[in-house]
Structures are given as structure tokens and as C-alpha cells.
Amino acid sequence: GESVGLHLPTLSVQEGDNSIINCAYSNSASDYFIWYKQESGKGPQFIIDIRSNMDKRQGQRVTVLLNKTVKHLSLQIAATQPGDSAVYFCAESGYSSASKIIFGSGTRLSIRP
Amino acid sequence: GAVVSQHPSWVICKSGTSVKIECRSLDFQATTMFWYRQFPKQSLMLMATSNEGSKATYEQGVEKDKFLINHASLTLSTLTVTSAHPEDSSFYICRAASGSLNEQFFGPGTRLTVL
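Predict the joint structure of the above. Result:
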């Protein structure tokens, strides 16, 4: 069936280094992708999104890359900080607020001092 | 910015009792609300989608008679876990959406523990 998944379940990064979190999706018809950050005991927090007609989008310290050829999505966090420690989920949706958002399995990012 | 609240934030109940969880959109009208369940160290799994004034649409494998969803107003949706059992212990999260992509937010979640 269609799914959104992740390559790495955990990622440990030195503080100040860049983090790259990867995600694979299987539904070639997906047209909207979102990255969420979830801290322990809290709801998911929107980080950045990208439509399928784009291959890169940048935010503050974060960049999302989309490779439709290999159905791959990545989240890059520049100069990782202790506050970036969380679980990160990629998600797939239609381009409508009424569309379902389907989550991938998540990657836990831990920061080494 | 827009805020979605959930109440209670956590609840402990005895097996066999029913628990109601509220989801409110505080500064926008949510025409659609979604309910998710998240078990420890797992992803969020969509349970159901509800549109204001309509019956909820449940995902495959989710018992509609066990998880009652009401979306009676544009700012409030409720999820009632009926005859709760320990396996229903989970983190329940709602998402509220209006007609705009800029107005879709997740609630802070409700931790349910069934003894």
C-alpha cells in the first residue's frame, strides 16, 4: 500500500553541525509534503512544507529537498542546536487543508554537546 | 497565531469507563477536524476525519462504535472513547483545519491511561 517512511530511526549529531533527515515515499501521486517536529508529550509542530512542483525550499535554518525521480524527501537543519532535539516526521498530504495528512515513521534527533 | 487546544491534557480512568476528549480551534473556524492516535515511540495514525455537522469518516480498522466523534460546531470536536481498556491507552491528537492551508494546526495532545 501507499506509505511514507524513513531511512533512519535515530540520528545523533554534534552541536553546531548540520543534520540531514531522510524520508522515502511510495505514492508518486503525492503533491504536498510536510516536515513536523514533535517534542516529548506535545503535538506535532509544523517546520516546513514543499509542493511537488518544487525541488527545494528554504526556511530559517531548515531546507527541504524533494527528489521526485527517486521519491525521496530530506530535511536539512543547519547549525544544529540543543533545542532541535526531538522526533521529526515527514508527512504526505493533498494540497488542501481538508486533505488527510499521513505521517511517516519518524526519526529521533539527539544532539551531542 | 491560530491555536488549537485539547482538554484534558491527560486523563487516567478505570477499565470499562468512557472518556471524552475535546478539541477546540480558538481563533478560526474549523470546517474539518482530524483525530490521530499515537502509541509510544510510534508515528501518528489517523483515526477519523470529521466535517462540521456531518458524520465522521473512520479509517480502516478503527471501530466507530468505540471511538465516537462529534463535530457539532465549527470550533469544537469531541472524541469519546467508550468502554476504555488498557490497550486504548495512548496519546490522542486532533488537527483542526479551515479552508485555508495556512489554517491547519495540531492540538497539544491528550494522554489517556486506562488502568
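The mean pLDDT of chain A is 90.
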